[in-house]
Amino acid sequence: QVQIVESGGGLVQPGGSLRLSCTSSGDPLAHWAVGWFRQFPGKERESVSCMASSGYVTYMDDAVQGRFTISRDNAGNTVYLQMNSLKPEDTAVYYCAADQFCGHSGMGYWGKGALVTVSS
Questions:
Q1: How far is Cα 46 from Cα 43, in angstroms, rounded to an integer?
Q2: Per residue in 32-60, pLDDT tens?
Q3: How far is the C-alpha of 1 from the C-alpha of 36, rounded, in Å?
């Protein structure tokens, strides 16, 4: 069973960078597709990016294209979301989730979320 833990959230100035990390205290993430999602206040959760267990990036949201990068460590057990050129509109709770495949109707395992605040 996967138990997701996100880390790396916090306060950053516009134009700055943060790197979020996603790990599992249970079944290693190397066996799973892993996605990053974000939820703005009062809005539905939306997909940011997703990576298959092979390391193939199946999705990157247009709003973050060219600014955010999803990656895995060499063992595949840690998944990162590198966020550059951050904008105030990127402020959200960011969630890591895992399942067998990207594009699933609902990812099976979710972290508690990490708050990212972009403000000067």
A1: 9
A2: 999 999 999 999 999 999 999 999 999 99
A3: 19
Pairing of strands 92-99, 114-118: antiparallel
Name, in order, each residue with C-beta under 8 angstroms of 42's C-beta and a sequence gap of 6 or more: none
**Amino acid residing at 112:** K
Non-local CB neighbours of 10 within 8 Å, separated by 6+ positions: 18, 115, 116, 117
Name every residue whose Cβ is closer than 8 Å to that of residue 19 and which is 6 or more positions away in sequence.
8, 80, 81, 82, 83
Give CA–CA dist 98/95, Å, rounded: 10
pLDDT given at position 106: 86
